[in-house]
Every structure is written in structure tokens, then in C-alpha cells.
Specification:
alpha+beta
């Protein structure tokens, strides 16, 4: 018992886990996810009816806007942010940043994706 008291006192002085600091965005990178909410993200469900992205390109501007609005409404029912992570309940539209961007803004870009932790249920 007399050895346990000093050990308990020592353990009381050991700091507990601390939350990780927000990662800094490396120079030249643009973060796609702010870690707080779904700002800038859109629903994407073009494949639901057997279509492809090329079919989306054929839609008028109004049809594209209506599709993205409907997909985003659906996506927000199934996607959330928990502890700085994107979380999906296994249903609903995909979540993406690309349908809301103009084609030109991505034409000559190179992409590097940096993941701190990727968890796939299963």
C-alpha cells in the first residue's frame, strides 16, 4: 500500500490527453473542409438513375441548379460533422465540393489530398 500512494501522486501529475491543434494549411494548398460544418459541400447523386457526369454537363443551367439543390438537401439529411470529421449514415447522396465549382476553376489544377485519418466502417 505504501508504494501505491507515491504512484497515485505521480499519475496525478501526468497531463491527460489534449485535443490536437487544428492542422495548418500548407502553403499553396486550399482546404476543402473546414472541420466545423458542410460549408462549400454539395450533394452529388448523378449516378442514382444510371447517369454519368457527362449527362450532368448536358443539362441547362437551371436543371443543374435544381439537381444540385435537390441532391444537397438529401445529402444534408445523411451527412454531418462530428469532432471535426465528415460522417455519413450510409445513405443519401454523395458529398462533394466539385459540382458547385465552374469547370474552368479545376481545368488545370493538380490535386493532392492529405488525410489525417480515414475510417471506413466494415
Amino acid at each position: 500500500m505504501k508504494h501505491l500512494l507515491p504512484l497515485a501522486a505521480l499519475l496525478a501529475l501526468v497531463p491527460g490527453p489534449t485535443p490536437a491543434a487544428d492542422p495548418a494549411t500548407p502553403p499553396g494548398f486550399t482546404p476543402l473542409f473546414n472541420g466545423r460544418d458542410l460549408a462549400g459541400w454539395h450533394g452529388w447523386d448523378i449516378h442514382k438513375k444510371g447517369a454519368a457526369p457527362a449527362d450532368f454537363d448536358k443539362l441547362s443551367a437551371d436543371e443543374k441548379e435544381k439537381a444540385i439543390t435537390a441532391w444537397t438537401t438529401d445529402a444534408k439529411k445523411h451527412w454531418s460533422v462530428e469532432n471535426g470529421e465528415l460522417v455519413n449514415d450510409g445513405h443519401g447522396a454523395y458529398l462533394t465540393v466539385f459540382p458547385g465549382k465552374s469547370k474552368q476553376s479545376f481545368t488545370n489544377d493538380k490535386y493532392t489530398f492529405v488525410f489525417e485519418d480515414l475510417k471506413i466502417p466494415g
